[in-house]
Write a structure and sequence with these properties.
Blueprint (H helix, E strand, L loop, with lengths): L2 E4 L3 H8 L6 E3 L13 H19 L4 E11 L6 E2 L5 H11 L3 E12 L4 E13 L4 H11 L18 E6 L3 H4 L3 H10 L5
Parallel strand pairs: 1-2, 1-3
Antiparallel strand pairs: 3-4, 3-5, 5-6, 6-7
Helix pairs in contact: 3-4
Length: 193
């Protein structure tokens, strides 16, 4: 079966490559704006499913993986923390997150038109930032440049140094693609993982 990752994320590609399965990556073009009243779990579920379904309709014989992640501070579950895009915004995000718990909802969807696959799950994760000084934030941003990462950190890199703890049933969900859940689903649909 053809496997497609509906993502342009280099981190998601790196994670999927761990499975040594042949796949293609295709970037879905969808509007990622939250709908009125949509919480983080609903948004992560909808976006991961929409990404996978868009590519699955274009490639009906393939099994398509879609994933999306929504982050929010525990103090405000409707104030989503996005990608900072530059140093100043990343600095402000990390200042705000210092000493706080950041929650993640990571959606994972498998879709296939011909095989009648329509499965979506959402993984819950948390990170607790330690108290960060401005000098520590500056040093971190200069080293890791996480400007295209929700929450302004790269868990797979130096970002791990920012935390007191992380909690997740699948730590790769914090990185953007929940690999334990993905392996379970792929086995369920006939892939040898």
């Amino acid at each position: 079966m053809q496997l497609i990752l509906a993502s342009s994320s280099s981190i998601r590609r790196e994670l999927l490559e761990r499975l040594n399965l042949p796949y293609q990556a295709m970037s879905p073009d969808i509007d990622e704006s939250p709908k009125s009243g949509e919480d983080a779990e609903q948004l992560a579920r909808r976006l991961s499913q929409e990404k996978a379904l868009l590519i699955a309709k274009q490639h009906p014989d393939a099994v398509v993986i879609g994933s999306d992640q929504v982050a929010f501070l525990a103090s405000d579950p409707f104030d989503f923390v996005g990608k900072p895009m530059d140093y100043l915004q990343a600095f402000a995000q990390l200042q705000r997150q210092s000493g706080q718990i950041l929650n993640f909802r990571t959606g994972l969807s498998l879709q296939s038109v011909r095989q009648n696959i329509d499965t979506t799950v959402v993984i819950h994760s948390q990170v607790k930032f330690r108290d960060l000084s401005d000098a520590e934030i500056d040093y971190y941003l200069q080293q890791d440049t996480p400007y295209f990462c929700a929450g302004s950190f790269k868990l797979e890199s130096l970002g791990i140094s920012l935390f007191e703890w992380t909690k997740s049933d699948d730590f790769t969900a914090i990185m953007g693609l929940p690999m334990i859940s993905l392996c379970q689903l792929l086995r369920q649909y006939g892939f040898r993982v």
